[in-house]
Write a structure and sequence with these properties.
Blueprint lengths: L3 E8 L4 E4 L2 E4 L3 H6 L3 H5 L1 E10 L6 H14 L5 E5 L5 H11 E2 L4 E5 L12 H12 L6 E6 L2 E4 L3 E3 L8 E3 L6 E4 L2 E4 L10 E2 L7 E5 L6 H10 L2 E6 L10 H9 L3 E6 L15 H4 L4 E3 L5 H11 L6 H8 L11
Parallel strand pairs: 1-4, 1-5, 5-7, 7-8, 15-16, 16-17, 17-18
Antiparallel strand pairs: 2-3, 6-14, 8-9, 9-12, 10-11, 12-13
Amino acid sequence: MKKRILFIATGGTIASEVTELGLKPGISAEGLLRAVPAIERLCSVECVQLYSLDSTDIGPEHWLGMARAIRENYDAYDGFVITHGTDTMAYSAAALSYLVQGSVKPIIFTGAQKPIGFDTTDSRVNLLDSFICACASDMHGVMIVFNGRVILGTRAEKTHSKSFDAFSSINYPHIADLRDGRLTQYIVPQFAWEPRFSDTLNERVSLMKLIPGADRAQLDFLLERSDAVVIESFGVGGLPRGMHESVHAAAKAGKLIVMTTQVQNEGSDLAVYGTGRPLSEDPLILEAYDMTTEAAVTKLMWLLPIAESQEKAAQLFYTPVNRDLLAR
């Protein structure tokens, strides 16, 4: 018996058409499906056109909409495929990893670097590969399927802006490969028989990327306006002189501060240098270690509404979800 898959379209390059103002989403979920006839021979598909947006315009309200669509249809389908623009797909996949935790059913994000109507496009292969994964018995939870790789939703980052090899798995192996329609799986994702759904996010989370000579006033502005701030530091982590006082005071006042690194691979280790050790010794300041920035930001958005204290927030932040955190 064919698996039943719900196809949720949100726009993105894969569904874009050429206009006077550049590429803009305009092809429906049904139109995408018609372009790859092999999909309907593989499984039974129903379509939902949830959004028709460039992924630059996707944000927390849309993540909640995607999670709601999955929750409302969870019992009726064996898996879910979501087409999405590539620019913010890693954020959306991370967010859904927290909003829909432990799903035994696969929730697959995919998209393309070229629209499906172009002669040279990666759209058709990515779309077919995604449905192959959505039908696989050992695929669980949120993943990105792109250019023949399967990456956990909490581990993906876009690392190429133009080439088909757009996404990398950061600080964790990709869990499967696809070649010519054949799936080779190396790692079985974690799951629970009963998924845990969330329906709230706190958008008052900011990200500051340090540059040499960064202004403390910029940090103070973000700390004042936000409930949580992720600071992308240099190397294994630290802050310039003058900023330590700001973050210690903000953390003491109840703000969530997460220190991470702007270096993609190998993660942070605040205790190594004098610029970071005082931060590592402050129990109110959190460290992302090997988490991606996308995972750290969206995890904070998820946990803020449900954490009744800073201690509970820290506990939730350091509790691994979909293998988002390995080393601590």
